[in-house]
Amino acid sequence: MSLIAWRDEFTIGLPDVDHEHRELIAMINAVHESLGPVSGAEKVVAALGEIHARIAAHFALEEREMRKLDYISVTEHKDDHERLLDDILDIMDAVESPKDYDPEALGRRLSKWFTEHFRTHDARLHHWLVGQR
Q1: Which of 17, 35, 93, 113 could disulfide-link to 39, CB 3.0 to 4.6 Å?
Q2: Per-residue pLDDT tens for 3-24?
Q3: What angle do CA 37, 81, 86 make, to 5 degrees?
Q4: Which of 105, 114, 84, 87 is nearest to 5 (CA)?
Q5: What is the pTM of this model?
Q6: Cα–Cα distance, 110 to 26 (Å, whole number)
Q7: Per-residue pLDDT for 68 more than 90?
């Protein structure tokens, strides 16, 4: 079963960004499915490093689009992106300590991390975009 199921509410109305949202969710689901309770810290950290890199690149695209559109809340949205990237680094640090690695907790944390951002900041961006048309 997928960690994060795609929902239409994740669509914000920018085709390139929406496409990457789908790809990122698919990537996180694939990584989650490949990491079982016996996965070594090295494998988990490498997978999370890839997720971090892809998400950082996605956030750069999203922020560029928001600036281009003169989105009024770009600073707050960017700040949340930074918090989310820092959170992944914290997860990676925790995984490096075998006693702190819990694959179920990792899954819950990643799921919450994504759904909260979509539900709040991305939803506000979507509503703003709709109002601009």
Answers
A1: 35
A2: 788 888 888 888 988 998 899 8
A3: 50
A4: 114
A5: 0.81
A6: 13
A7: yes
